[in-house]
Amino acid sequence: MNRFLQALLLLVMTWAAVGCSQLPLRDPLRISLVGIEPLPGQGLELRMAMKLRVQNPNDTPVDFDGIALDVDLRGLSFASGVSDQVGSVPRYGESVISVPVSVSAISVLRQGLSFANGDRSSVSYTIRGKIGGSMLSGSTFKANGQIELPTSLLGSGTP
């Protein structure tokens, strides 16, 4: 009986190893922020559509079913959003996905205080999220960047 269990365990481990070796290895998707458009909000809430460029550096298309993201500005939580979009990013291709996000009044106030006390020439951002797919093809992403503010918005800097 003991030899039977050992043989069964060896067989299961072999199947698992073969199964894992058959999984496709792929490079991560590249995500970048390419635009922001205003949306109607409710009450003290701000709404925006964030346009994300999704690049697929792989030789097979990537199908997606939904996307969720969180946005930080200057290291502080700013906005979050989800979309139930369904689509595909072609092999060695790209797609632009629009995700509606919500910004609370508290987040706007916190960012205003941070802006008043920090460097006003640029704003750093981080976008973290997940693109849904089948059980093994969904992927997480993280993108960082800087938004350079126009000098006309900054004023002369003297009171």
Short summary of the structure?
The protein is of the alpha+beta class. Helix content is 23%, strand content 49%.
Beta-strand segment tally: 7
Question: Might you state the CATH topology name?
Answer: Immunoglobulin-like
SSE series: HEEEEEHEEH
Helix content: 10-25%
What is the C-alpha radius of gyration, as a whole number of Å? 22 Å
Instruction: For the record, give the distance between the C-alpha atoms at the N and C termini, rounded to a whole number.
Output: 88 Å
Structure commentary:
The chain is an alpha+beta fold and about 160 residues long. The protein has a single domain (about 25-150), classed as Immunoglobulin-like, CATH 2.60.40. It is built from three helices and seven strands, in the order αβββββαββα. Strands 1-2-5-4-3-6-7 form a seven-stranded antiparallel beta sheet. The radius of gyration is 22 Å and the shape is elongated.
What characteristics describe this protein?
159 residues, alpha+beta, Immunoglobulin-like, 7-stranded antiparallel β-sheet, elongated
Describe the protein's topology.
Blueprint: H1 2-21, E1 30-39, E2 46-56, E3 62-73, E4 76-89, E5 93-103, H2 105-117, E6 122-131, E7 139-148, H3 151-154
Antiparallel strand pairs: 1-2, 2-5, 3-4, 3-6, 4-5, 6-7
